[in-house]
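Risk mitigation, structural track. In case the binding assays with flavin-adenine dinucleotide fail to produce interpretable data, a predicted complex structure has been prepared as a fallback.
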Amino acid sequence: MSQEYDAVVVGAGPNGLVAANHLVDRGWSVLVLEARPDVGGAVASDRELRPDFVHDTFSAFYPLAAVSAEIQGFGLERHGLRWTHAPAVLGHQLPETGWAVLHRDRDVTAARFDEQHPGDGDAWLALCADWDRIGPAIVGALLTPFPPVRPGLSALARLRSVGGLRFVRELLMPAADLGRHRFGGAGPRVLLAGNAAHADIPVTAPGSGLMGLLLTMLGQTVGFPVPVGGAGMLAHAMADRLRSAGADVRCDSEVTAIEVAAGRAVAVRTAGGERYAARHAVIADVAAPHLYGRLVPDEALPRRTREAMRSFEMDPGTVKVDWALSGPVPWRETPPYAPGTVHVADSVEEVAEALDQVAARTVPARPFLLAGQMTTTDPTRSPPGTESMWAYAHVPQQTARDAGDGTIRGVWDAADRDRFADRMQARIERLAPGFGDRVLARRVLGPRELEARDANLVGGGLNGGTAQLHQQLVFRPVPGLGRAETPVRGLYLGSAAAHPGGGVHGAPGTNAARAALAHRRARFLVRR
Ligand SMILES: Cc1cc2nc3c(=O)[nH]c(=O)nc-3n(C[C@H](O)[C@H](O)[C@H](O)COP(=O)(O)OP(=O)(O)OC[C@H]3O[C@@H](n4cnc5c(N)ncnc54)[C@H](O)[C@@H]3O)c2cc1C
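Fallback model:
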């Protein structure tokens, strides 16, 4: 005998939790099954380095959650969530001009850019004004299922007010060109390029401009907020909301198979031998390569899906380093406002070089670092006067060569991981002499460790698949499947592998839940 629910959600990452919350709100009975001992997927925190330090194991800053109508609509504050911000959103120390700083007060950001390059202050404010007019419609279009009819029309209606096709052309530009197009100085250019590099689109390739602009303008308008107490607080608030609405959330329950009968997903089976039937939907918050061909047997899939999955591309691997520091980061030049997020590269060209090397299956000699000063952002993360810090950098999924001293083979065993972590730390040491002396404890998570802690992070890829244009929109995860629906009826892909991809915005989860509800309504009407 198996238990039966209206929907079974496989995986309690942010997308699974969003999907489940959406469905319980519509009166469905929902079971969430999570393989790991705790909910959250890549939204988690731990105290492994030292008991008095909280480290976010994976993701840390949540501008996308801040603009997600769905997540904001859950009222997670009633479930223990509190948001906080660093004094400045983002900083980037450049050798010649000093810190480029994004402050939540746009006048402060603009004034500093203007000091560094007269004219850039007004150019910044003009860009912000354009975003005020069209940004919310762009965000809406990105976070809804493809094609985004209503927000798309809204964006079109606003296009003239921001310069029409000129603005569209800018969105299509590579981030490096967009920066040069709008600004004379290095500061705003490097912030745009660094933000574009949060995804794996080379900053010299089309598509990166939109990514850079999106994250930069979100930083400017909503900041990069973090949950007080650690990233895990966000996941726990979503799980708590679910449980109090009557849903079942079971951890240590890995789903090993999705049962398909007459072309329809009808149940799931777990490693522990349980079977759970799904009356209306199975929502898979799992990696695409795990769903197709592993959880769903090949014979239940059409040939075109099996063939298309052969060319599915993950995004690059990741090496993440966490440090417990005895004091604040000793930046050579003190930033005018302490940033939560820090980008490390000497120039736009160096950002481009690191990404291009990764794309060319080369371990970068001078990796581009994305870093977080977490105690600066949220003082509860470690004792007063100390810093909970992390940085990550991308590495190839398959390595052909090392552009550095040639000692990293790309197998990501302990030796590779430590050498690469030393390379990353040396990048920070250059900008903050004495950094190493403040390290009380260090943890290095390579591609394998990341995947061992969250099966969706295949090969250490953190966005559920490349964000490059050939795997976006209707091409995500494979051509023709730009929506949550899969070739199996009643089975919906609700992870970052689905449109619109990685980041903690919950859109794939919402899209999957909405699709399940719409199909249920349609079946109900047909039967009547
Ligand atoms: C190091 C790192 C840093 C990041 N930084 C940021 C950031 O600062 N801001 C941001 O917005 N995004 C960031 N991201 C990206 C973001 O975290 C992910 O895009 C997001 O978590 C994807 O959510 P998801 O629910 O699709 O998958 P995940 O968060 O990966 O969760 C999937 C869950 O499903 C479970 N699961 C998988 N298979 C099964 C199975 N068969 N049975 C049961 N359970 C299963 C997994 O254990 C996991 O808990 C980062 C990611 C990483 C790895």
